[in-house]
Write a structure and sequence with these properties.
Strands 1-2 form a two-stranded antiparallel sheet. Strands 3-4 form a two-stranded antiparallel sheet. The longest helix is centred in the C-terminal third of the chain and has 25 residues. The protein has a single domain, classed as Ribosomal Protein L24e, Chain: T. It has 3 helices and 4 strands. The N and C termini lie far apart (about 50 Å). The mean pLDDT is about 95. Helices cover about 40% and strands about 25% of the residues. With about 100 residues, it is of the alpha+beta class. Keywords: Ribonucleoprotein, Ribosomal protein. This is Large ribosomal subunit protein bL28. It comes from Wolbachia pipientis wMel.
């Protein structure tokens, strides 16, 4: 398994390790990944992801998985997350149509 966040596609980054004498050597910064199960309230489904803690904090800040996906630009999401976002939008449109029909 590669060390990639399955929601945001974030990967390891590169930089320099700087010693006390200011010598610089190449190093990598790995993501802090966790296996989590996130629930979509709109779809009534559970999804399993390997997610970076930074992404988990953002999801917590936004409220839930649905709010995170709907408020995040599609370009920044992975393919798996984009598919879920499309399904969310379809369900929301369907609910709006049903509300409009029932009101009329």
């Amino acid at each position: 398994m590669s060390r990639v966040c399955e929601l945001t596609n974030r990967k390891k980054s590169f930089g320099n390790k700087v010693s006390h004498s200011n010598r610089k050597t190449k190093r990598t910064f790995l993501l802090n990944l966790h296996k989590v199960t996130l629930t979509s309230d709109i779809l009534n489904k559970k999804f399993r992801f390997r997610v970076a803690t930074r992404t988990l904090r953002t999801i917590d800040y936004k409220g839930d998985l649905d709010a995170f996906l709907l408020n995040t630009r599609t370009i920044k999401l992975s393919e798996k997350a984009q598919k879920i976002k499309r399904r969310l939008k379809k369900v929301l449109v369907k609910q709006e149509v049903e509300l409009a029909v029932s009101d009329a």
